[in-house]
Design brief:
2 copies of one chain form a homodimer. Helix content of chain A is about 45%, strand content about 15%. Chain A has about 300 residues and is of the alpha/beta class. In chain A, strands 1-2-3-6-7-10-11-12 form an 8-stranded parallel beta barrel, surrounded by 7 helices. In chain A, α2 runs antiparallel to α3 (about 45-60) and α3 packs parallel to α5. The interface between A and B is large, with 73 and 73 residues.
Chain lengths: ~300, ~300
């Protein structure tokens, strides 16, 4: 799957992933109103609205981008109807040829991590059948529990030819509270990064491993160090745009082959129509606004090469 | 909710939580066969079987125990039908007066953590209505992302009078890979423990905070230190029984008031009927076997006081 991701990136010339993180406040009013008219002020209406909103964005951007990253929390907040919208979104994006990175940040131990891995990347055995619960291509994984938490994901990835991105250094302001703590003079995120490189060494697709890392765009100096520690690791970079990361900040995340990183933007794309810059599209043009925002992001990022 | 948990513990004289972690291999054959007969070898059948299995255990044990801890991964592996079984289980346990600790180990940043918190502990606004997606009493939270990840949960807990347990030192063999790393001579889990005490100070129910901690039974020496660092923190203790923790190991987790800790057992209770000790119950007596296992666990733990 890491090879398909790289292929898609080369084809689109866009190391970009669109974060499908549909806050209800982002959904144009006419879409939500229609759903509420049909199903009342219910979780079902919210799920339906989110799905229709997503579909518009996917249709308008899928030829320009290699991958999407739905953030499951934004669906889970609407209970089961929300999770149904998540599944529809994942399945639809895959139909469109996009690589789907499930931003689930799961992490547990042993059989519990296996259950998450099976549920999101693999197949669960029921009688004589093997069935998919959800079916993302990659998921994000939290490393706090150590190898016991990560290895079950790797096992499923090997079997299913899928991949993971392990949180190393996150983009948020307080990420340093624990991640930057010094251990023999070196921050924890470097130790985690080394571990990711180690886990990934046995999991090579071609030039890159299918055990990737998450490193926030908001800490480019740390990105530079982590790039060196994990030379064959694909880096998923959140924090561009709305969180403050700029194109110039992104350069250290890429290798000399122009590969090795994929940059996420969520709000900046899916909620572009609310920015002054794209105001002319209006609410009903939210999908076209997101298309233009992708083009602008692509141009912005290409300026660093 | 921390006060209700303590009340329930006092009433049952059992600082015990039953982990409802239904691997399909634990479900008696006759239950799974019935579900498959009705719905084929499908995710729906797995969800139905898991729910019936859980219901038997809940009915057989609910008068003896203060709380349950369903592990969402074990439901998520069956996709949406599995998550439906999770929700049914949560709702049913609450009807029975049990405190429900959703073992979800979520953790993200800002609005994303808010979405998880709202989805599992709070209410989401849809038009003029506030609706619950899931509705656990407590959830477990991963601290790797720092305060940005935890505070949104605390905010929702304040509003809804609910609570969280933050992972501090997990019970698994590799938990030390990152958690034990020394920072100025002190392990990371102590730094996290201090932070939990700090987060919890503003969140007191009565004598205890509704910001709790997870500390594995398999590391009693560390439990002793963490008990001192977090005197007003309720500690959720996994790792008893199947993972190797004994009653003697548990003593340091409790305060002198006999409170301050609640011990989880999953397999040891819900899969008791597969142990030689409870073999006489047979498969059809799996629920009664789990009842006897709760009584035995209660007696075992009471020996330390």
């Amino acid at each position: 799957m890491i090879n398909k991701l790289i292929e898609n990136i080369k084809k689109t010339e866009a190391p970009i992933v669109v974060g499908l993180d549909p806050m209800l406040g982002y959904v144009p009013k006419y879409i939500l109103d229609k759903a509420v008219k049909e199903q009342g002020e219910t979780l079902e209406a919210a799920g339906a609205a989110v799905w229709e909103y997503n579909k518009g964005i996917i249709d308008a951007t899928c030829d320009l981008i290699p991958a999407v990253k739905p953030q499951i929390a934004m669906y889970e907040q609407f209970g089961i109807p929300g999770i149904e919208a998540f599944k529809k979104t994942v399945d639809y994006c895959k139909e469109k040829g996009l690589v789907v990175i499930g931003d689930i940040k799961r992490g547990d131990i042993g059989s519990t991590s296996t259950a998450y891995a099976v549920g999101h990347l693999g197949k669960v055995q029921i009688g004589s059948k093997k069935l998919s619960g959800f079916d993302e291509d990659f998921v994000t994984v939290n490393p706090y529990l150590g190898s016991d938490g990560v290895n079950p994901f790797i096992d499923v990835c090997k079997e299913e030819k899928k991949g993971i991105f392990v949180l190393v250094k996150t983009s948020n302001p307080s990420s340093g509270e624990f991640q930057d703590k010094k251990i023999n003079g070196r921050p924890l995120y470097e130790i985690v990064g080394e571990k990711v490189a180690e886990w990934g060494a046995g999991c090579m697709g071609g030039s890159y491993s299918y055990v990737g890392a998450v490193v926030g765009a908001t800490y480019p100096e740390m990105g530079k160090v982590l790039r060196k520690i994990m030379p064959k690791t694909y880096i998923l970079v959140p924090g561009y745009g709305a969180q403050g990361g700029t194109a110039a900040d992104l350069k250290p995340y890429f290798n000399e082959d122009g590969l090795g990183a994929i940059v996420n933007s969520s709000r900046g794309i899916i909620c572009a129509y609310k920015q002054e810059k794209y105001a002319q599209y209006g609410e009903s043009g939210y999908a076209e606004a997101s298309r233009q925002a992708v083009i602008d992001m692509k141009n912005d990022i290409s300026s660093i090469f």
